[in-house]
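Progress note, sequence design subtask.
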């Protein structure tokens, strides 16, 4: 997979695109090519290797052998360098002792399928193609999309054949003397028809974060490095700007291949995790979502005033099994409170006052939706009840069987998920602090009062007894009608730790569960307890490990002072990263790690790279160093894990209130903070 959002290319390991599964060139959710099959002198080359050259580029190497050669060694080497959003270069190298006159053909075809159709395993009918009038290209055009492929490098102009099933470029006489090489070039362009107006596109400016230098555990260093590279490839930019001459508003697409677009919760979480490297990404994400904040009641979109977007697509799409989603869809219960918290945390990290003040009305409208939705609920919780043909479950665990009880029975909405109540509480208390700092004390007091009431209701409704568990009770994944709690331990409770909705004893109880054998696989945090019926280590949400979910739990454990438990999960996650080349998949198998057990396996349809998985390295780094800025009194604290767990750790290139910052912990646990700007002070570890 190589990515340069909104484009990507999915290829098999031999580089030959044959129209199978999800392979092909893509742009803006449209498959531009599904077939690009190379034949030299009547045969396909033999694949011998594949090498990623960066997030957006990969090289495939193959060879061609010929009868009559003096040795069994291959005499023709073929290198195909494929670039997302570009095309490919085919380099032919004669490493033999004889002159070769090659007959090279490249067959091309497409169905111009929407990504939703590809995800369902569908391959559409072949779209007929036509030769360009100048003879240097092939064109496909249908009512939903278009593709143009141009070929040509130097004087090697191909012969072009078109037809109803696709087209072929043929170079009939490529002369290569011993030691010579020739390069053939292709460019692939296209997209949806008509092009969606105002839709995000590839950014034109650099990534909106600093480049850190991390020293310490090699696994963490590599996870951060690879993650930042993937995040650069996943960037998109809103074509609108708050100031025509101002910076682009960039954000992180959710993941490749299925969600290469603006996703409320995913883009927000990625921006939250990246705040230690500056507030520009948070700013862009907030503005991209604020411009699309709900303004009216629309049943099909599930839009409501103040509600934050769930996902943005170029067009409405059928996803199968009765699921039909509009291009602009608001069916998410968590994106709205998370939007508020992103603004609050960006404020703490030094988002400039003009941006904070301009975005504050959007946050207040979002918080009003949260409060009013809770007030309309008979139990006072933030609950979801989807429309027909919409997403059944509307938080990050959104698969059809995402919520099951301890017997394995599926539980249907309406549901109030535990972590969503934590998000709402955190949004309310954080926004109250921001409003108070702006002098709006009455509005702040009302939010604090509302949040205190929600916290009490939560404590009364969500705890379930567990006499035989690692702790005497646990937090239910959700409560349904009549406050019926959904039994069975799940990872959701880990996302409560940093929200403030739990007291100290509750945090210690959750910590015991997260590191128990039921939830800690040894490679990361399972989404569902392995002791429950229906546990499946390779299900979407029924036992697999999600990278971001584990990272968020580690952040919460560190914030709660549960450093030993945090290190257990962090060490497992970092070990898992070594088996994935530090490009963490969206999710992977939750099988137990034992002596001699196989490496963890990626979920077959997992996004990789994926936004919040790629940002999880920075989340771990920030959590393990305990970075805690507070804009109210302009203080900065670093409360790291004990040095005996992870060892010395330092990072330069952090950014607080626009100024570079370095934080280092030595082998004795001594912490040094350098670069605090005027007006900020180091509050130590207190």
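Output:
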């Amino acid at each position: 997979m190589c990515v340069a959002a909104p484009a990507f290319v999915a290829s098999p390991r031999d580089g030959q695109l044959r129209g199978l599964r999800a392979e092909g060139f893509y742009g803006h959710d449209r498959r531009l090519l599904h077939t690009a099959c190379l034949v030299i002198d009547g045969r396909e080359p033999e694949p011998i290797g594949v090498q990623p050259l960066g997030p957006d580029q990969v090289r495939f190497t193959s060879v061609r052998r010929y009868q009559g050669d003096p040795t069994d060694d291959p005499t023709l080497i073929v290198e195909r360098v494929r670039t997302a959003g570009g095309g490919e270069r085919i380099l032919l190298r004669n490493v033999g002792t004889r002159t070769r006159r090659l007959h090279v053909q490249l067959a091309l075809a497409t169905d111009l399928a929407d990504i939703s159709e590809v995800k369902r395993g569908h391959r559409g009918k072949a779209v007929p193609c036509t030769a360009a009038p100048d003879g240097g290209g092939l064109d496909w055009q249908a009512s939903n999309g278009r593709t143009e492929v141009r070929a040509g490098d130097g004087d090697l102009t191909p012969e072009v054949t078109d037809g109803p099933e696709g087209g072929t470029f043929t170079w009939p006489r490529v002369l290569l003397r011993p030691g010579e090489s020739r390069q053939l070039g292709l460019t692939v362009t296209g997209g949806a028809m008509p092009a969606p107006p105002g839709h995000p596109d590839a950014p034109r400016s650099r990534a909106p974060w600093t480049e850190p230098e991390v020293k310490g555990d090699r696994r963490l260093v590599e996870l951060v490095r690879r993650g930042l590279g993937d995040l650069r490839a996943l960037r998109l930019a809103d074509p609108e700007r708050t100031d025509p001459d101002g910076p682009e508003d960039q954000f992180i697409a959710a993941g490749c291949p299925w969600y290469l677009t603006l996703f409320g919760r995913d883009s927000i979480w990625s921006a939250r995790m990246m705040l230690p490297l500056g507030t520009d990404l948070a700013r862009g994400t907030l503005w991209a979502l604020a411009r699309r904040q709900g303004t009216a009641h629309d049943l099909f979109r599930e839009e409501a005033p103040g509600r934050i977007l769930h996902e943005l697509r170029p067009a409405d799409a059928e996803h199968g099994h009765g699921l039909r989603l509009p291009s602009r869809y608001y069916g998410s219960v968590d994106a709205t409170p998370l939007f508020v918290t992103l603004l609050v945390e960006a404020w703490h990290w030094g988002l400039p006052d003009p941006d904070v003040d301009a975005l504050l009305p959007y946050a207040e409208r979002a918080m009003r939706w949260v409060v009013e939705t809770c007030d309309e609920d008979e139990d006072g919780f933030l609950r979801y009840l989807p429309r027909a043909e919409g997403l059944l479950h509307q938080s990050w665990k959104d698969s059809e069987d995402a919520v099951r009880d301890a017997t394995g029975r599926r539980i249907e909405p309406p549901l109030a998920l535990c972590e969503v109540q934590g998000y709402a509480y955190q949004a309310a208390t954080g926004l109250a602090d921001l409003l108070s700092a702006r002098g709006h004390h009455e509005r702040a007091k009302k939010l604090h009062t509302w949040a205190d009431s929600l916290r009490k209701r939560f404590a009364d409704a969500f705890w379930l007894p567990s006499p035989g568990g690692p702790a005497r009770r646990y937090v239910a994944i959700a409560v349904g009608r009549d406050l019926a709690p959904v039994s069975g331990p799940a990872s959701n409770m880990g996302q409560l730790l940093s929200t403030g909705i739990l007291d100290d004893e509750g945090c210690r109880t959750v910590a015991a569960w997260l590191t128990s054998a039921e939830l800690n696989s040894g490679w990361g945090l399972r989404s569902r307890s392995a002791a429950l019926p229906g546990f499946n280590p390779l299900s979407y949400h029924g036992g697999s490990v999600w990278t971001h979910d584990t990272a968020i739990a580690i952040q919460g454990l560190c914030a709660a002072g549960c450093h030993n438990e945090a290190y257990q999960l962090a060490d497992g996650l970092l070990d898992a990263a070594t088996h994935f080349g530090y490009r963490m998949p969206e999710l992977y198998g939750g099988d137990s790690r034992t002596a001699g057990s196989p490496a963890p396996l990626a979920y077959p349809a997992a996004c990789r790279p994926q936004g919040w998985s790629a940002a999880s390295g920075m989340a771990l780094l920030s959590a393990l160093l305990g970075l805690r800025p507070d804009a109210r009194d302009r203080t900065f604290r670093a409360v790291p894990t004990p040095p005996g767990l992870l060892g010395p750790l330092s990072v330069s290139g952090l950014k607080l209130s626009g100024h570079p910052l370095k934080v280092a912990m030595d082998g004795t646990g001594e912490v040094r903070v350098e670069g605090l700007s005027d007006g900020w002070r180091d509050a130590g570890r207190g």
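The chain has two domains: 2-192, 213-644. Work on this subtask will continue into the next period as scheduled.
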